[in-house]
Design a protein that fits this description.
Elements lengths: L2 E4 L8 E5 L4 E5 L4 E4 L10 E7 L2 E8 L17 H11 L5 E4 L8 H13 L3 E5 L16 H15 E2 L4 E8 L2 E8 L7 E2 L9 E6 L2 E4 L2 H10 L7
Parallel strand pairs: 7-8
Antiparallel strand pairs: 1-4, 2-3, 2-5, 5-6, 8-11, 9-12, 10-11, 12-13, 13-14
Length: 233
């Protein structure tokens, strides 16, 4: 987090205190406004931001350590892309990570899309495009341009997954190579892949370690029991 917005009245004597594992930072508050902390390496995990007057807490916000491969709070800068990518790759392909050399085409699109459906149906995950199965970073090809490749992935998800999962496509620059990270949020229901040849038969998948497999009937039933009222396939 680069800054905090403070609003309210009677703020005389209040201070903002940012507590991290390594250090604490204090700023006096002289009224409503935006207050910024110098954070050259991003926000430390498990930090706590407090607005207080002496020992009385007026407000607070906690920042628990993020789980890599899941949706993040866009208002928080946890760390620089390099270390984040290193951590993802250090864990290798598994329950929350799938690597693709390039944006898939033709029949190979289904493998990526059913993995995204599985991530969404469970507790989230990340697809890294521009990374080989052996975890070597090759980067996205120069043609088509990066924007078109991102749009291609967004279009695949829109056209084949129901309901639309919560996800964020992010482009990471690593030593001149571009990697597309598709960060998928875990949902509270099952997400289906729609096969163009048989759109009337939705397909459901789950992640088991580094593999995406068809969901069992009991897993599908459990997902529908958790689905919000009004959800239809």
């Amino acid at each position: 987090m680069r800054g905090g917005l403070v609003d309210g009245e009677a703020l005389d004597g209040a201070v903002l205190e940012l507590n991290g594992a390594a250090d604490n930072q204090l700023q006096s508050v002289d009224g409503a406004g935006i207050y910024r902390f110098p954070l050259p390496h991003g926000l430390a995990h498990d930090s706590l931001l407090m607005l207080r007057r002496e020992d009385r807490w007026l407000d607070w916000r906690s920042f628990p350590a993020p789980t890599y491969g899941r949706a993040r709070d866009a208002s928080v800068v946890w760390e620089q892309p390099g270390p984040e990518l290193d951590l993802l790759l250090a864990n290798g392909e598994g329950q929350h990570l799938e690597c693709k050399r390039e944006v898939p085409e033709g029949d190979s699109r289904k493998k990526m899309l059913k993995t995204i459906a599985a991530f969404a149906s469970q507790d989230g995950g990340t697809v890294l495009i521009g990374v080989q199965d052996d975890l070597q970073i090759v980067g996205l090809p120069e043609k088509p341009n990066v924007d078109k490749q991102v749009l291609a992935v967004v279009g695949m998800i829109r056209d084949h997954l129901e309901p639309m999962p919560s996800y964020e496509p992010r482009v990471i620059d690593r030593e001149g190579k571009k990697i597309l990270a598709v960060e998928v949020s875990g949902g509270d229901q099952m997400y289906a892949y729609r096969n163009e040849a048989r759109p009337e038969f939705p397909e459901f998948y789950v992640r088991v370690g580094p593999n995406t497999v068809p969901a069992r009937h009991r897993e599908i039933a459990a997902g529908f029991r958790q689905a919000p009222v009004g959800t239809m396939f």
